[in-house]
C-alpha cells in the first residue's frame, strides 16, 4: 500500500483557478484537483514551464502564495506559504 506523506488531509475538488506570475507579467489557467489548508494539486490546461514560486488565484477569490513541491508535464503539487496577517502588500511594491 502506498503511504500518503501529506501533513493535512486534502479534499477532492474540481474548480478553475489561475496561476499568476507577476514578475513576468503572465498567467495560466489551471484546475484545482484537491485542496487542503497547506497545499493543492493543480492540473495545467497545457504543458507549460511554471516557476517554482507563484501566486494562485483560487475560484473563491483568494490569492495564495505557492511553492512547487513536485511536478509532472501537466500537474503540480504545491504548498501554500503562510503569510502573516499584517503582510498586506506584495514584495517589490512601493507604498509611496
What do these coordinates show?
This protein has no helices and six strands. It has one domain: Thrombin, subunit H. Strand 2 and strand 3 (39-44) form a beta hairpin. Strands 1-2-3-6-5-4 form a six-stranded antiparallel beta barrel. The chain is an all-beta fold. It has strands at residues 11-21, 26-35, 39-44, 53-57, 63-71, 75-80.
Descriptive key words:
mainly beta, Thrombin, subunit H, 6-stranded antiparallel β-barrel, 6 strands, 0% helix
Mean pLDDT: 81
SSE pattern: EEEEEE
CATH superfamily: predicted glycosyltransferase like domains
How many helical elements?
A: 0
- Percentage of β-strand residues: over 45%
Shape: globular
Task: Characterize the biggest β-sheet.
Answer: 6 strands, antiparallel, barrel
Strand segment tally? 6
Total of domains: 1
Looking at the overall shape, the CATH architecture is Beta Barrel
Secondary-structure-based class equals mainly beta
CATH class: Mainly Beta
Main sheet: strand order: 1-2-3-6-5-4
List the helices and strands and how they pair.
Layout: E1 11-21, E2 26-35, E3 39-44, E4 53-57, E5 63-71, E6 75-80
Antiparallel strand pairs: 1-2, 1-4, 2-3, 3-6, 4-5, 5-6
Short description:
Helix content is 0%, strand content 49%. Strands 1-2-3-6-5-4 form a six-stranded antiparallel barrel.
